[in-house]
Amino acid sequence: MASDKAGQGGSHHDLRVLAFALMAGFPAVALCLWLLWSSDHPDRVRWTLGPMVVLCWLGFAFAARGLVVRPLRTLAGLLAGLREGDYSSRARGADRTDVLGTVIGEINALGDTLQEQRVGALEATALLRRVMSEIDVAIFAFDDADTLRLVNRAGERLLAQPGERVYGLRADQLGLAEFLSEDAPRVMEAVFPGAGAGRWEVRRGTFRQHSRPHQLLVVADLSRALREEERLAWQRLIRVLSHEINNSLAPIKSLAGSLHDLLDRVPSPPDRDQDISTGLGIIENRAEALSRFMAAYARLARLPPPRLASVNVEEWVRRVANLELRLQVTVEPGPPSVIQADSDQLDQLLINLVKNASDAVVDSLGSVKIAWNRLTDAVEIRVVDDGPGLAGTTNLFVPFFTTKPNGSGIGLALSRQIAEAHGGSLALANRVDSRGCQAIIRLPL
Would you say the pTM of this structure is higher than 0.85? Predict the structure, then answer.
């Protein structure tokens, strides 16, 4: 229908151009014929020149029509090719010095631009398909009728069917209707033909294609990741426990053997009782150290949920600062702030940080400062010292890792656990303005 109308419009335009060309030349032709027939020329001259004038008039009129219509048809062909997706056609002989040449040149440039964009779109689509096929997360796309339109390789494995068999099926037929109907993101338990039972993280998004709304469903298997994290956690725990227990049992075993040999000696050495007493004292100390270690681990592993109540930040900070007796902790007043938190746990958190800062400066007679300020939705507390700073941050929060001779290695780990249990965070970093370290606590208001 559109092409018929375009053809009819083109025919009418041809006729109008021809009519205007004929009307433009008609006065001159009429004048020539009137002069030719009104003068005393022989009839042979009249019948020879008259038709020649008319033929020239008609020839120039049709030539003018061709000069106008032919370029328009060329442009129409180029535009039709672009509309059909053929970006390889180009018009030749475009002269930028005239208007028509400028139009042809712009259409050629448009074709180049569209061709580059199509190549880019094809490359981007190929890359997207490659990424979707290789990613180890199931991805599904459903249209507004909950019909499957796209699935990647991981989704095919999850459904245990190739994409050709599942395209066009509804979400309820695939067992995915629940994933599309409930809130996302969330974690849920489900059973799939290709993976069995497990825990899955479900995320959803929306997009439009061909003016129709679509839903993008992403299903990630958490069971394998959780099992791997659990395995690594057990490995780390066993490594730490083995190290600490062996450090205590090895000297106990050695001393027990030495004491046994001492008791078997005949005659008994004169200082046997003193040696036995010394050895038993060492065994007692190592056993007590092992007991403290296990108690510290139990404390870290069994942190109770915080019991929330109103806590005045200034009162909390000043209370903890007064507990440090080795040096004077400076408290810089901040804006009045009240948070909902467990006061006892916050005391433990801040005590650990103030103690670490004091340990860093007590020998150099340095200073420790506590300050706080309000952010948009949180209060930020800083414990700042001018000690030697942090040599490395890799193992700061690793449980039982310590650089102190008598340290337990749970202070920072416990402090961060308390902060995160309150919905906040704890970070340590070297100061940029001067020498020293700062601990930054953020707790929600």
Answer: no
